[in-house]
Write a structure and sequence with these properties.
The chain is of the alpha+beta class and about 425 residues long. The protein is built from 10 helices and 18 strands.
Length: about 425
Amino acid sequence: MRPMRPIDTAHRGRSARRTSPVFAAAALAAVLTFTATACGPEEDAAGSTPSDATSQAADGKVTIPDDLKDRLKEHGIDLDKWRDGEWKNWDKDKWLREAKDYVNPVIEDLWDPDRMRDADKAPENPVDNDISGDDGVTDPTPAPVEAAGLKTPYHDSAPESGKLFFDGPEGSMVCSATVVEDPANPGKSNMVWTAGHCVHAGKKGGWYRNIAFVPSYNNTGLSVAELQNAPKEEVAPYGVWWGQWAQTSEQWIAQGAAAGGQGAPYDFAVLQVTPEKGSTGKSLEETVGSALPVDFNAPAVPEMDSMTATGYPAAPPFDGQKALQCSDRPGRLSVFENDPTMYRIGCTMTGGSSGGGWVAKGQDGKPALVSNTSIGPVTAGWLAGPRLGEEAKGIYEAVRATFDRQGTRRETSLMSSRS
């Protein structure tokens, strides 16, 4: 799958005149690619409602409930062997697809500085009724906005932002992600927001493996050469946090594709994370000092002055080691006639920026996460992200409800992510 590449032709600026209400699906499919996704074997579709989840031992390490162990054994997966390298087996029968079979046990020190630095692959969409209120509208293509380097140290500029690492059949892969608030645990969130295609391969695959979040990755903006000898404390100053639970939309699991925009309006995911080295008594939010609220009812596009997208673009001309941002007034993009309308901004970020948070003023006038990077053209120049509505809120609430204040899995049944 070709990554997004820098634009080399002139783009039209946005005007007050609207274009055709709907992009032709065939034409759009030719130019859209996920800014980070991968393809895998075809398997049966499954819903995204978990029936069980991992839990957390007293030392903060992830443990696997017995019933989940039994289901994994049905796939031929032994967790001890998994930690010892069995995860590298990408046989169809061992690519877990169903949400209830998500498993991501901590493999301590797997993501060392060298492996993080070398991870540079950017993994390459029928839905419910429109949730945006902008039914089938596509605004003119925005003029490209050059991605600007985030001021260092990154933690001072965007403490909630970070880099997501994971493994797929093609090797180690990267996306971007954001720490978000957990209303049930004020000031003590362990929740991270990213794109669905950064945790699950969609209709032709399953869950990626060894999913881990590194807040403020390469905090001081070291070059690739400087990172060669940098200690882990400098590369990952706030630690490595493993995704002990993840959830994405039913639509992404059933229909998500690496190119063409299929599933893009539902391309979002939420992670519940745990520290790699075991609990220090501090949550992720306490560790980084901040978390963003999520606005599931953001103002309509005409009422929004600006959105800012942050990410770690890894496809040329970028190297994935530095955080960048784009700010632009959003427009609307209707990928397919019956799909929800997406946000779109001018931006030259490429593959690897997927999953990165889009921040705007929420209904209360304060900064909030309102979307995440999902798709863009192969030639780069703009990015699009889903409008977060009831489906996204359902996923967020389901993940939030999975764990109690101590980070232990609740035994109660969970709500469905479908509204």
